[in-house]
Design brief:
two-stranded antiparallel sheet, 45% helix, single chain, mainly alpha
Length: 87
């Protein structure tokens, strides 16, 4: 429990938001903070295309490439990319 709490706090402080993508349903499983950061309706289901629309245009190709790679070789990964803020 303490390790999980330290990880959550480090993610909060660093601005990182962990999420999972379910390939079977094309849904991102994410905390409410992701919806807030991306300017999406709280609690709204997020599919890959709505997620990608929030990614900075210069970074979309990289995120799409990561997405395809994960479809072939699932597992955890870490990536950095810019997003388009809602304002």
């Amino acid at each position: 429990h303490a390790a999980a709490e330290r990880l959550r706090r480090a993610q909060d402080l660093g601005g990182a938001i962990a999420f999972e993508w379910d390939a079977r349903t094309d849904r991102l499983l994410a905390p409410p903070a992701l919806n807030a950061l991306y300017g999406l309706v709280p609690g709204a289901a997020i599919d890959f295309q709505s997620f990608l629309a929030c990614v900075h245009p210069d970074d979309r190709r990289k995120v799409e490439d990561d997405h395809r790679r994960l479809a072939d070789w699932p597992g955890p990964y870490e990536s950095e990319f810019r997003i388009l803020p809602p304002d």
